[in-house]
């Protein structure tokens, strides 16, 4: 406010002049207009200052007035009720809703109606209605009326509005029922979440409701295979499941949707034909109420089963068949089937909760794991069988964003890694590219920001809608925001808070800014049709997926300057030393897999063997002197990547401790563990452990007794006498043994046909199986103890895996790129000097071009298909790779500046779903460039303006060039608008951009492109050759050549009324090229033009109209009219037979430039066109400046003799103007 008052005082001091006084330093204006001018300026200054003051007062009082409105909202709503409620109930209403009335603030509900309703449903009466002297129905009506009044006032004052500013619909009846419910009010717990209500007497209080059917009657009457919409379902069904059922399109799943009903959580009670849940489904309802947006997979014996809407999801996304044609589906219990089903569901953006039976008591089931798109790998597969689970998948990252005025804080949360990696000052355009990487992100996105920042987020078309606003106070620090996001995620995934998530801040000092989505796609970092992927050509084809992910992430979000130089040093070691042989690092486990399985205490022998090999290889590198040149750059990059300080001696000590722990627990793989045995637990745990040794001894004793029992029972001729059944896991005889025997039984107690056993054999077999089970348990306990011991070395394991992946990536890139002839350019200076080639081409096949780009920039022209876009991508890819520390497709001696950002702009087409045209998309991307361009920016602009008319495109490109030059931006603009090179740009004394062209030579009269960069300008795009190359027929090509001929296109391609009707609307006349006229060629007087128009006809009935005058009725439509628009210093001559519509178009186009118009009615359209041509010719000969003079070239609408004379006069006039211009230039 003080600043505004200061400006107001300054305005008064500068502009207010009291009568009879004058400022000593102010010169007196000649004449008596000085006082008038000063008074006008003073009045204007006062009005502007008052307007600024009013706006400032509104901003200052907005927060206070909004909070004050919310405070008195409850009382005003109560006063508006007629009749007034009883005093005791009035007080109870005010107290009951008073705690949550602040929920109407947009800062609380963030435009989300469901969030507002959820908070208001917490309000409770808190007293007995009998004590208040009211009946239940009367209390319900009063409460509903009060809630409706409260909601109406809030909406009227702009509080109960959504993100788009529209008023929210009230839910007065539902809120009244909740307020009068006897359920205890669910107050939030310490971390802000609502507690889960217990499952009481077979029902959850207000957690599930009885519904007849999930579908409406109208939806049930449709055809069985018709798709459903969200509005087809009962309002009691959660919106989340309405959206999921809207996606269902498989016929089997569509038929199951009609069976949903009975309850609003599963939709399964209808299938059970029972209105009260019992047994297992009673427990399932409790689980579903705790996790309403997950698919429940419950182990029932040998199967995992799902019911209701969960079964529909399995049938839809996993291809399973329903059980007994009801909403029930399942699959056998094994790790492979479970992981396959989870993968199908998580790929469909669904979450899964797995409940397994307890090993001690089969009727007790526990939640084993919650799997989501961000954590899709099941970590407890060893409990379900020995089947392989397949490749470990880390899943998509969870995203946390904090919206700030100085840029965005962008963080990736990886639950399997227990890690948060974040960058500061990220642009929204860069966030769009980061979100597009790795096939999207996991929902929800955690968002927090300053006041009303959600309004800005809603404007971003790319911003995901599945977000969770944290609503933290603005003064909290970023680390607390990230900590709260991790707590929310752990609650969603049912994970323990220990060990805590590691926060890794990526240093961006001197780093290249993260790429925008458009740049990353055009340079091949992300997928785009027709653009080769940069990472695929920078690494060998056999490179592991982890190295590709690492390099792509480096290119999308480049690292700090120190890290880049460390990478350059690392690569320099690899490409310069021919004797440096790395130890084997080909089985490096993902860091997410290592941390996840160790944290869950479910690590396998194979995982620990991989960790052991990785640690041994890295220990060799850090211990032997021949690898000394790798130590400093390697440790520097790993420290920046893991967020921890690394010293070689400490790192080596940690590696030795990890190796000692693994060697103590695992069996030595160099020696066989009982080679005569095929028991699965052999060869895993070391026998040096007492528990393992005792278990193995028990197995050996039980095996000896089993062999003795078999010997005693075998007949004399015992060839092929034993049978092993893998399903029952038993041994029996085919013939009756010599001792007492009886029939053998299967696992279900049923006697087997022609199979026999003895009591001693049964006892020995049972003892052996029990001993084997104890040995398996001992081995598993040994692995769990190893997980516990390694959990104290998680930091070392992170560094080990990061170092191994980094070495693999750098070595693979150096070996592959050096084979292609790529080099490390120098990073300095402000001038790009390099001989480059396209990154996707073999060096022997590529055409190398020397690029010498200074701060003045360059304009590249060339024919179609000559390689302009290829050159632009080669420059951009080389600059990006060099500034990330990688080798580039350049020849030795190249120099690349150290840029701050690299931007690539090209035509990407329209976005109809967002209402953005092709040129609108170009305008959006270029506007982002202009906002952030500056010194250190490399802007590559390819065919800008291709989505609009050539004249506007030329103006846009010229303006873009001038603005980039003014901001000291280094740029290359490739265009087919060749005459841009001739424009004298306003560059404030800076040098004009260099003119580049793509090489071309003619062989036998036909063009041959050399694809080499040259200095100069191309004047012909050779469009005809391109059309012929891509298959245009000869007839169309001939017509193209005829229309392209000089002075032919305009005379033959005319805009005519196709119907010939005088009442048909005419298109708006298009502006033509402006003629170059001298300064004397201006409109001298209206009388001169009127006389010339009148001379065209015998009678002089020319009408003069003001810009906003209404046309005479006879001239509005159906009458041919010759007209002249009087513009500011120019004339526009035209004709029309629908003058009213034409004048409306001209008013919209010219606006304030239109000063008047002259009208001359004529007999017909042909006569009007003839007179239009003659009038334009005469005006040009007399030196008038015309807005458009193309019709003056027409010969079909003028007398032959007069036309020839006028042509000769115009030709002589042009010759004279050219001679004058040449003389002026000299």
From TrEMBL:
Classification via Pfam families: MutS_I, MutS_V
Question: What keywords tag this UniProt record?
Answer: ATP-binding, DNA damage, DNA-binding, Nucleotide-binding
Can you tell which superkingdom this protein's organism belongs to? Eukaryota
MF GO annotations: ATP binding; mismatched DNA binding
Is Coiled coil set as a keyword in this record?
no
Residues in DNA mismatch repair proteins mutS family domain copies: 857-1045
Check the record and name the SMART domains matching this protein.
Answer: MUTSac
* Biological processes annotated in GO: mismatch repair
* Record flagged with keyword Glycoprotein: no
Annotated region Disordered: the residues are 1048-1084
- State what protein this is by name: DNA mismatch repair proteins mutS family domain-containing protein
Lineage, please?
Eukaryota, Sar, Alveolata, Dinophyceae, Suessiales
């Amino acid at each position: 406010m003080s600043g505004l008052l200061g400006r107001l005082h300054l305005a008064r001091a500068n502009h207010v002049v009291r009568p009879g006084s004058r400022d000593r330093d102010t010169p007196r204006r000649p004449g008596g207009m000085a006082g008038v001018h000063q008074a006008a300026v003073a009045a204007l200054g006062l009005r502007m200052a008052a307007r600024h003051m009013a706006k400032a007062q509104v901003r200052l009082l907005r927060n206070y007035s909004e909070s004050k409105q919310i405070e008195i909202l409850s009382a005003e709503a109560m006063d508006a009720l007629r009749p007034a409620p009883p005093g005791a109930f009035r007080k109870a209403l005010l107290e009951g809703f008073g705690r949550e009335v602040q929920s109407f603030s947009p800062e609380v509900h963030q435009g989300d109606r469901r969030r507002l309703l959820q908070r208001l449903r917490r309000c409770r009466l808190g007293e007995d209605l009998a004590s208040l002297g009211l009946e239940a129905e009367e209390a319900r009506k009063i409460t509903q009326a009060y809630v409706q009044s409260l909601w109406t006032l809030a909406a009227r004052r702009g509080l109960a509005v959504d993100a788009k500013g529209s008023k929210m619909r009230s839910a007065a009846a539902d809120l009244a029922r909740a307020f009068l419910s006897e359920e205890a009010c669910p107050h939030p717990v310490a971390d802000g979440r609502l507690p889960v209500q217990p499952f009481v007497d077979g029902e959850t209080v207000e957690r599930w409701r009885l519904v007849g059917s999930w579908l409406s009657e109208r939806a049930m009457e449709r055809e069985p295979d018709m798709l459903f919409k969200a509005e087809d379902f009962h309002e009691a069904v959660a919106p989340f499941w309405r959206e999921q059922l809207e996606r269902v399109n498989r016929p089997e799943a569509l038929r199951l949707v009609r069976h949903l009903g009975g309850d609003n959580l599963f939709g399964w009670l209808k299938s059970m034909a029972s209105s009260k849940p019992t047994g297992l489904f009673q427990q399932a309802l409790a689980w579903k109420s705790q996790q309403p947006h997950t698919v429940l997979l419950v182990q029932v014996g040998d199967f995992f089963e799902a019911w209701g809407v969960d079964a529909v999801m399995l049938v839809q996304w996993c291809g399973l068949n329903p059980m007994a044609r009801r909403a029930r589906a399942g699959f056998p219990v094994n790790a492979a089937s479970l992981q396959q089903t989870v993968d199908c569901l998580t790929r469909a953006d669904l979450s899964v909760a797995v409940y397994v039976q307890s090993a001690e008591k089969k009727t007790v089931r526990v939640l084993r794991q919650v799997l989501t798109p961000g954590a899709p790998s099941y970590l407890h597969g060893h409990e379900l069988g020995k089947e392989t689970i397949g490749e470990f998948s880390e899943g998509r990252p969870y995203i946390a964003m904090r919206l700030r005025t100085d840029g965005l804080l962008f963080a990736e949360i990886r639950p399997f890694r227990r890690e948060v990696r974040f960058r500061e000052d990220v642009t929204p355009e860069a966030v769009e590219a980061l979100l597009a990487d790795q096939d999207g992100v996991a929902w929800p996105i955690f968002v927090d920001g300053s006041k009303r920042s959600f309004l800005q987020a809603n404007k971003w078309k790319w911003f995901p809608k599945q977000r969770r606003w944290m609503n933290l106070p603005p003064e909290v620090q970023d680390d607390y925001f990230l900590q709260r996001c991790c707590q929310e995620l752990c609650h969603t995934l049912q994970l323990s808070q220990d060990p805590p998530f590691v926060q890794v801040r990526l240093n961006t000092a001197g780093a290249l800014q993260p790429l925008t989505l458009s740049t990353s796609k055009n340079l091949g970092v992300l997928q785009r049709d027709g653009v080769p992927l940069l990472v695929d050509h920078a690494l060998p084809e056999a490179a592991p997926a982890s190295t590709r992910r690492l390099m792509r992430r480096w290119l999308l979000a480049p690292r700090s300057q120190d890290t880049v130089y460390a990478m350059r040093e690392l690569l320099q070691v690899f490409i310069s030393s021919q004797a440096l042989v790395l130890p084997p690092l080909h089985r490096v486990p993902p860091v997410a897999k290592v941390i996840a399985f160790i944290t869950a205490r479910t690590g396998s022998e194979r995982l620990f063997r991989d960790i052991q090999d990785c640690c041994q290889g890295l220990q060799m590198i850090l211990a032997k002197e021949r690898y000394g040149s790798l130590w400093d750059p390697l440790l520097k990059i790993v420290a920046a990547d893991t967020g921890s300080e690394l010293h070689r001696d400490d790192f080596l000590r940690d590696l030795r401790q990890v190796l000692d722990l693994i060697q103590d627990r695992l069996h030595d793989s160099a020696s066989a563990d009982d080679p005569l045995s095929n028991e699965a637990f052999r060869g895993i745990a070391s026998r040096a452990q007492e528990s393992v040794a005792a278990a193995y001894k028990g197995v050996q004793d039980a095996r000896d007794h089993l062999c003795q029992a078999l010997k005693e029972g075998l007949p004399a001729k015992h060839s092929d006498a034993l049978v092993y059944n893998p399903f029952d896991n038993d041994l029996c005889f085919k013939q009756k043994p010599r001792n007492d025997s009886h029939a053998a039984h299967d696992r279900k107690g049923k006697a087997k046909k022609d199979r026999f056993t003895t009591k001693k054999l049964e006892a020995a077999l049972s003892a052996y199986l029990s001993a084997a089970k104890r040995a398996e348990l001992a081995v598993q306990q040994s692995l769990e103890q190893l997980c516990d011991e390694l959990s104290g070395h998680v930091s070392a394991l992170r560094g080990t895996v990061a170092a191994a992946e980094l070495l693999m990536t750098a070595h693979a890139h150096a070996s592959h790129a050096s084979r292609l002839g790529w080099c490390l350019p120098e990073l300095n200076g402000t001038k790009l000097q390099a001989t480059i080639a396209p990154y996707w081409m073999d060096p022997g096949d590529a055409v190398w071009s020397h690029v010498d780009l200074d701060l003045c920039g360059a304009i590249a022209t060339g024919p179609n298909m000559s390689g302009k876009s290829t050159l632009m991508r080669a420059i951009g890819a080389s600059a990006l790779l060099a500034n990330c520390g990688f080798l580039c497709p350049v020849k030795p001696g190249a120099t690349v500046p150290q840029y701050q950002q690299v931007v690539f702009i090209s035509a990407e087409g329209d976005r109809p779903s967002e209402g953005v045209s092709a040129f609108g998309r170009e305008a959006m991307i270029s506007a982002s460039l202009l906002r952030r361009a500056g010194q250190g920016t490399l802007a590559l602009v390819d065919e800008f303006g291709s989505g609009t008319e050539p004249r506007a495109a030329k103006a846009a490109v010229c303006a873009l060039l001038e603005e980039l030059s003014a901001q000291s931006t280094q740029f290359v603009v490739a265009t087919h608008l060749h005459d841009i090179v001739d424009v004298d740009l306003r560059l404030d004394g800076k040098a004009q951009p260099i003119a580049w062209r793509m090489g071309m030579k003619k062989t036998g009269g036909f063009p041959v492109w050399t694809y080499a960069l040259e200095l100069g300008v191309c004047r012909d795009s050779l469009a005809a050759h391109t059309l012929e190359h891509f298959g245009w027929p000869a007839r169309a090509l001939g017509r193209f050549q005829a229309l392209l001929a000089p002075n032919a296109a305009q005379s033959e391609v005319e805009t005519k009324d196709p119907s010939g009707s005088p009442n048909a609307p005419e298109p708006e006349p298009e502006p033509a090229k402006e003629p170059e006229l001298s300064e004397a060629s201006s409109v001298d007087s209206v009388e001169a033009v009127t006389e010339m128009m009148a001379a065209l006809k015998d009678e002089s009935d020319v009408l003069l109209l003001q810009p906003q005058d209404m046309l005479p009725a006879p001239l509005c439509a159906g009458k041919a009219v010759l007209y002249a628009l009087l513009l500011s210093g120019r004339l526009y001559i035209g004709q029309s037979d629908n003058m009213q519509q034409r004048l409306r178009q001209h008013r919209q186009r010219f606006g304030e430039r239109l000063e008047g118009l002259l009208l001359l009615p004529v007999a017909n359209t042909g006569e009007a066109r003839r007179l239009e041509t003659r009038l334009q010719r005469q005006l040009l000969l007399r030196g008038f400046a015309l807005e458009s003079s193309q019709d003056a070239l027409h010969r079909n609408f003028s007398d032959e003799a007069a036309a020839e004379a006028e042509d000769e006069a115009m030709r002589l006039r042009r010759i004279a103007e050219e001679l004058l211009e040449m003389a002026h230039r000299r």
